[in-house]
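Hi C.,

You asked whether I'd gotten around to modeling the 114-residue construct. I have! Everything is below, sequence then structure, no commentary in between.
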Amino acid sequence: MATAQKHFAEITIPFGDGEQTFRLDYHLAKDWEKRNDRSLMATFDAMLKSRNATLDDTRSLIHMGLVGAGMDPKEATAVVTTWVENRPIGETLPTALAVLEAFLFGADTAEGAA
């Protein structure tokens, strides 16, 4: 019996008080780019090279990754409120980068970096 293949952008990494699974897909990414009038690649590049990210970029990427992995949107909002909005951005920026990196380059790359 064949096992289900994991989505190319799905990662499980330490976040908050344990591990969380995150996943972006094409439709979530396209919606984010449309709302923000900016590409995810340009956002990743700015975040990686100069740590130039808005608070909303960090928050929304983490929230989107939780929802994309199957978490109820209301639960994802509560998790983000606790572990993003009430924590230093220096703790959450690496998570946002890992979620984005998994979508752009594949989960194997992002999980090794997180």
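If it helps when you're writing up: The helical segments are 26-36, 40-50, 55-68, 73-85, 89-105, 107-113.

Thanks,
B.
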